[in-house]
Specification:
The structure is a single chain. This protein is α+β, with helices and mostly antiparallel strands and 246 residues long. The protein folds into two domains: 112 residues; 115 residues, Immunoglobulin-like. The chain is built from four helices and ten strands. The strands form two sheets. The protein has a five-stranded mixed beta sheet with strand order 3-2-1-5-8, with no helix packed on it. α1 packs parallel to α3 and α2 packs antiparallel against α3. The chain is elongated, with a radius of gyration of 27 Å. The N terminus is likely disordered. Bound molecules: copper (II) ion. Copper (II) ion binds next to loops.
Length: 246
């Protein structure tokens, strides 16, 4: 009996130590994520936060599961018909068992929420040096207009290494532009201008698609994003202007 009491009142202390570990973990995470120059890339921030959340819920889940398992084995019935003796906890131990695990969990929740808020600001604050392209969506295609008037359909070309902002609207119904590789998605709506920005750091081809059910050919409303070396991009843009301008 005396031994049982000891385990029960040491439990909160153990959890409190784990809680301290959690408090320190964000410090380590912030220290390791210090970025270099340039704007904060929402895609990198998104991945970072997602992985962090996965790790946190796994660790917290494991700790909670292990403690539960330990208590289940420790206080199991050892012979048929055995009547248990309820463990009497001091008021302090009772409060500790209730509050400390809740605190550990909530501290991590608030911490992740705070980082989410920070990341949301990265998503909404367009870097000043962004390259702007206009986008008009309609049933069922995407039409892009570059600063010099060149237009493309279902194909967006952008220079590598420069943030790109899309100013979007829709000619008919609500569509939603989704660029999975860049972790961005934003609705385009008639009568309203919305925006999204992304940071194409590596040349290559990527897909984008409509992510808001918009009718019969919704699933076919997709296109290609081509990230080109900046030089090639501007040469292409000029060439297009010549061809299409007459
Ligand atoms: Cu659509």
């Amino acid at each position: 009996m005396g031994k049982r009491l000891k385990v029960a009142s040491n439990g909160p202390l153990l959890l409190f130590l784990l809680f301290l570990l959690f408090l320190l973990q964000p410090v380590a995470a912030t220290a390791s994520s210090g970025g270099g120059g340039g704007p904060d890339d929402p895609a990198a921030g998104w991945d970072h936060l997602f992985h962090e959340m996965l790790i946190d819920i796994t660790v917290i889940g494991l700790v909670f599961a292990l403690v539960t398992l330990y208590l289940m084995v420790k206080y199991r019935r050892k012979e048929p018909g055995q009547q248990g003796t309820p463990v009497r906890l001091s008021r302090g131990a009772m409060l500790g068992w209730a509050l400390i695990p809740a605190f550990a969990f909530m501290a991590d929740d608030f911490y992740l929420a705070l980082k989410g808020w920070d990341l949301f600001n990265d998503y909404r604050n367009v870097p000043e040096e962004s390259y702007e392209v206009k986008l008009e969506s309609r049933l069922w295609n995407w039409s892009f207009t570059y600063p010099n008037g060149v237009q493309t359909m279902d194909e967006l070309r952008v220079p590598e290494g420069k943030p790109v902002v899309l100013r979007m609207t829709s000619a008919d119904v609500v569509h939603s532009l989704f660029l999975p590789d860049f972790r961005v998605k934003e609705d385009s709506m008639p009568g309203r201008i919305t925006y999204l920005w992304f940071y194409p750091k590596n040349r290559g081809e990527y897909v984008f698609t409509c992510a808001e059910y918009c009718g019969l050919l919704h699933s076919n409303m997709k296109g290609k994003l081509i990230v080109m070396p900046a030089e090639d991009f501007f040469a292409w843009l000029e060439e297009e202007a010549k061809i299409k301008g007459g």
